[in-house]
Amino acid sequence: MTKEHFTAELDRQVKLVRTEYGFTQDVMAKVLGISKKTLVEIEKGRSSLGWTGAVALCAIFSGSQVLSGLLGGEAGDMIQALAFQDLRPAYPKTLGGKVWWRTVERRGGYTIQQNILSQHYRALDSQDGRVCSSFDLEEIRRRLEELEGWT
Fold first, then answer.
1. What is the pLDDT of residues 26-72, one digit of tens each?
2. 3-class secondary structure, 102
3. Is the CB of residue 94 less than 8 Å from the CB of residue 128?
4. Phi and psi at residue 132, to the nearest 5°
5. Engineered SS bond to 150: which of 18, 49, 124, 144, CB 3.0-4.6 Å?
């Protein structure tokens, strides 16, 4: 998945999220910090939230069942995978993937998991700290090969 694909998917979900929360277009536009005209254009498929607007939608409506169903739970992991693509940030500890993740591989104290809905991958250390995330499994493996214990 790319940022563009992610954004396009969220563009298609704006009206459903608005309906889920019982908001009028006026209220939803105000919450998102955009004009009602822009919101109408997004809902009609003629405009886009853009990357920043898509991230804002996920953050503001983090409890949305519509978004959870689309993204496989909390959007933060997916957003980070897209935002940090080709970068190497220090991630905070995770809860170990109890709900939305399946284990792909375990080796040398590391675990590779895949999100069951969004299909992106992440690598965790032995204390469930995220090492990296990506939509490319081979990229995850390459990153872990750089670390001790993954061979």
1. 999 999 999 999 999 999 999 999 999 999 999 999 889 999 888 87
2. strand
3. yes
4. -165, 165
5. 144
Length of the chain: 151
Tokens of residue 150, six digits: 């993954």
The pTM of this model reads 0.63
Query: Which token pair is 84?
Result: 């940090």
Nearest to 134 by CA among 143, 145, 121: 121
Residue 141, burial from CB neighbour count under 10 angstroms (0-12, 13-18, 19+): middle
SS (H, E, C) 57-95: HHHHCCCCHHHHHHHCCCCHHHHHHHHCCCCCCCCCECC
Residue 75 Cα to chain centre, angstroms: 4
Task: Provide the 3-class DSSP secondary structure of residue 11.
Answer: helix
